[in-house]
Amino acid sequence: MKTATTGKGGGPDYASASLPRHLARGAVGFGSLIGGTALAFTVGPIALLLVPVGLVALRGCPMCWTIGLVQTVSRGRLRRSCEDGRCTLTVPAPPS
Description:
Elements: E1 5-6, E2 12-13, H1 19-39, H2 50-57, H3 62-74, E3 79-83, E4 86-90
């Protein structure tokens, strides 16, 4: 499994370069997980080879993919600043 890289804020970063790429990874990952388990009853245990493909596409787990989706969508839209022990989220000013 892939570990998360460190983002700008020092926390883990699961985001993709673009939203379409992230959604494509989700389609491949969830499709492989569902297909591997559903086909195991009809095709046999060989269909379970799709499960590792799904886990690699989702970067280890469905929750990691979901966190990455939220990070991909919110990237550049919110900024976090912490001063005197208080953290706030602000919307950056649009470029002029």
